[in-house]
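Quick start: what a row looks like.
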Amino acid sequence: MNYLITGATGQLGSEWVRYFKQNQIPFTGYGSAQLDITNRDAVKRIMDEDKPNVVINCAAYTNVDRAEEEQEKAFLVNKTGVKHLAEVCSQFGAFLIHYSTDYVFPGKIEDRETYPDGYPVDATANPSNQYGKSKRAGEIVLENSSANWLLIRVSWLCGASGRNFVKTMLKLSEQRERIDVVHDQFGSPSFTFDVVEKSVQLLQKEVTGIYHISSRGELSWADFAREIFQLAGKSAEVHNISSSEFPVAAKRPYFSLLSNKKLIQAGLEPANRKKELNQLIQQIQLS
């Protein structure tokens, strides 16, 4: 089995690279500087050279706030790039794993009552910002393609590589005694090593379609910060603030919990948040 990773230097792509290396599984991995998925000819050339059975697409435009101004760039990567991958995978008979986000959903606070276990995979997608719209556009392209695919949505992604909330909080805890964190946005983190592990298991089960991978339970960003400091042994105090007190260019979802029901039906158990968080903190502290 031959594997190819796009976006191999990003947060999730780096986790895939670690997984393959640790398990001594042959693969090829390309960062965006090496393989621009918005260039169809480049995608076709790499596919022709490497002849992968499975393509793992971790390439994405992920700057949520900048996407409000760089809409064309966000859609070029998150929609057109996915279109190219799906077309070429179909042509070469390769299976495509693609990652999306909780931001494809409306994120309304009232949805917290409608979906107490989180948004199911078939809930109506109606993004509230340009990043979410670009990711949803990529989903639609994939769904309408002739490729064989597995689409996995994640939320609040955290890993040892790249930038994420856990690493930011740990850094701030070394600089400040009190940290302001929003308390009116609810969801649950996905940990890169768990996402990769579950992705491998889903691949082994030969399933297709859409799945959600996140940890069990729901909490706010402020509560998540408190868990981080508690497990990391940090004394920094978390001060609750509302979303209106933390203005950003792109509207953030008040509710973005993903339901793991379909994952459980496939025989896979969602991650224990505190256990996975503790593991991640140890990885970050050792790096």
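That is the whole record. The radius of gyration is 18 Å. Residues 3-163+189-216+256-271 form a domain with the Rossmann fold fold (CATH 3.40.50.720).
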